[in-house]
Amino acid sequence: xxxxxxxRRAVRRGSPVLSFTQGFEGDRFVNFQLYDGLxxxxxxxxxxxxQIVPGLxxxxxxxxxxxxxxxxxxQGVTFTDGTPFDADAVIFGFDRLLKKDSPSYYPAAAGxxxxxxxxxxxxxxxxxxxxxxTTPQPSGHLLTDLTFLTFPSPTAVGKYxxxxxxxxxxxxxxxxxSSLQPGQQLVLLPNKxxxxxxPKLGKLVLRPVPDPGARTVALRSGEVNWIEYPSPDDIExxxxxxxxxxxxxxxxxxxxTFDQAKKPWNDVRVRQAANYAIDRKSIxxxxxxxxxAPAYQHAPxxxxxxxxxxxxxxxxxxxxxxxxAEAGVAGGFTTTLAxxxxxxxxxxxxxxxxxxxxxxxKIGIDVRIQKVEWSxxxxxxxxxxxxxxxxxxxxxxxx
Length: 399
Prior knowledge:
Blueprint: E1 3-11, E2 17-20, H1 24-34, E3 39-41, E4 52-54, E5 57-62, E6 68-73, H2 87-98, H3 107-112, H4 114-117, E7 122-127, E8 130-134, H5 142-148, H6 154-165, E9 175-181, E10 185-190, E11 204-208, H7 212-221, E12 226-228, H8 235-240, E13 244-258, H9 268-276, H10 280-287, E14 292-294, H11 317-326, E15 333-340, H12 349-361, E16 365-372, H13 374-382, E17 392-398
Parallel strand pairs: 2-11, 2-12, 15-16, 15-17
Antiparallel strand pairs: 1-12, 1-13, 1-14, 3-4, 5-6, 6-8, 7-8, 9-10, 10-11, 13-17
Helix pairs in contact: 9-11
């Protein structure tokens, strides 16, 4: 039951103190500031969904069968501890995530990166400035995946160990680590030798504030200068008060997954019925005040992968009831739905889940909502199990 989300950011002038949430925000606000991947998103424009451009690789070649990718590495790049970036650093980074018998293998990082490493069958050093990656089959998503597979300094990992490195991170990114107060704030300083040009900021302070109402209050009081996704109900008043509101569609979905080992979700007709019972247009327009757009397939319309012919689902409660009858559950059933209380682009997850609950009730599906903290949901996800043992789990992701 996906929806295509648009990012809304409220901004006021002042020093760069940001309010953010967890999950993919950890990549965008922390990972991409401290580290680089072989590729990266083009964020120098805001008119369309960002495309993939060279990062630590300046170019790449693809074999005729589409399975072998040769990446040519950027020269003259160093980690912020002075360690040179080269093919050995790339192999070290991949070993840390993919090679279980490597001394540098780190299971926690490998689990977190599992969403992005699935297309990599093998990798090898060609020479100091070249690496080669092989995929099991032609992959149209490898270049996107590689934006998230960023590289740590082999020297720093060797010095502090895998776990200690988390408190002493060293990358090649535009910022370098300064200090961390867990759960309160992270302070970053500019990398004046950054290969892409030194940041213009003197300091960047990142603060986690999962509640959208609290983020808006912090912005209005001047406690922070920039927030991501204010509450939809606050957008009109913020705009009227003179705040800048920046928005753009991109490939982000708020979706639900089913535990297909449990009845009746093991029946495809029941899963289809749930999809036909959801009024995505109402949720995106009325509940979210236009800060998201309805999506009727996995590929959002903001991406090049979108094909209108794949818009399978529509709002059709009658068809939903018919499918339930065909599946032998015309009288409905009770199910549990786990939803995070906030974090990682989840917009306003509990109100969205409550809307789903009301809409599914109209076709006889009684939904019991189970709230879960975002980091706990991620832990269960990385462990390959539903949060709280729920039948259905709803959250956000980048496609």
